[in-house]
Inverse folding.
């Protein structure tokens, strides 16, 4: 009976156990619904197995939940890779796809989208400053396309902590979690693929088989892409560059 009850509550995906920081983080940072627990398991795998040099990149940071999970795992596994990210900090309304784009947030006419995203960006800065004061992410306020344009032009970046930096290395692991439309997820994927080291990883959020996002359609393309192999789906996909 006990075994049957345990089976009933058993998760259908793999998770990281016995990590007090990870257990607490969902109660600390805004955005808990945005990070599938199975992704954390895949991030842990990628960080442990990625090439020894290179950068870790995140596209889509929101309020810093996945950022601080990644920073924590880098520290836990004694990895010295520089963490770089970008977020456009734009509000995506439930009904934007109809073309009728409001200036306020869903369900609260008195709260402007501008104030909302400023609040989320400030939350990102505060969370990183609180939880990783000595390993702050080099995250920039810009859409991913502009980020790659700047990188390709060897331009200098300024992050949300007002630090300037340039990127000298290629990518060993990237978490793609920005705009989930097929078109943008594909652009992000190709931009990352062009700068990904051999044996480097990409974790594509919302690519699980049961979903209906653009990222899910993109993973169907990637399954036929000879440059990549599927490492795991938990339920989102972790892929590795092999060619
Ligand atoms: C699902 S949230 C990211 C959640 C975050 N990774 C986490 O788990 O805590 C998606 C983020 O992508 C950002 N975004 C949307 N379009 C983008 C683009 N073209 N380039 C960069 N970021 C974008 C949004 O502003 C939003 O903060």
């Amino acid at each position: 009976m006990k075994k049957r009850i345990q089976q009933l509550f058993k998760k259908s995906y793999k998770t990281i156990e016995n990590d007090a920081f990870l257990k607490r983080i969902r109660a600390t940072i805004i955005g808990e619904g945005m990070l599938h627990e199975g992704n954390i398991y895949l991030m842990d795998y990628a960080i442990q197995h990625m090439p020894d040099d290179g950068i870790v990149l995140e596209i889509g940071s929101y309020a810093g939940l996945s950022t601080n999970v990644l920073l924590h795992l880098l520290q836990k596994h004694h990895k010295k890779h520089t963490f770089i990210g970008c977020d456009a900090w734009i509000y995506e309304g439930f009904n934007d796809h109809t073309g009728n784009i409001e200036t306020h947030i869903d369900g609260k006419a008195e709260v402007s989208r501008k104030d909302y995203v400023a609040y989320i960006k400030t939350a990102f800065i505060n969370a990183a400053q609180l939880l990783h004061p000595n390993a702050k992410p080099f995250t920039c306020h810009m859409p991913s396309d502009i980020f790659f344009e700047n990188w390709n032009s060897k331009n200098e970046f300024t992050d949300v902590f007002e630090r300037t930096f340039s990127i000298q290395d290629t990518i060993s692991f990237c978490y793609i979690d920005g705009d989930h439309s097929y078109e943008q997820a594909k652009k992000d994927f190709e931009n990352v693929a062009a700068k990904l080291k051999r044996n480097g990883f990409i974790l594509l959020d919302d690519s699980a088989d049961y979903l209906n996002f653009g990222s899910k359609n993109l993973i169907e393309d990637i399954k036929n892409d000879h440059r990549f192999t599927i490492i795991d789906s938990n339920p989102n996909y972790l892929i590795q560059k092999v060619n």
Summary: Residues 5 and 11 are 12 Å apart (CA to CA).
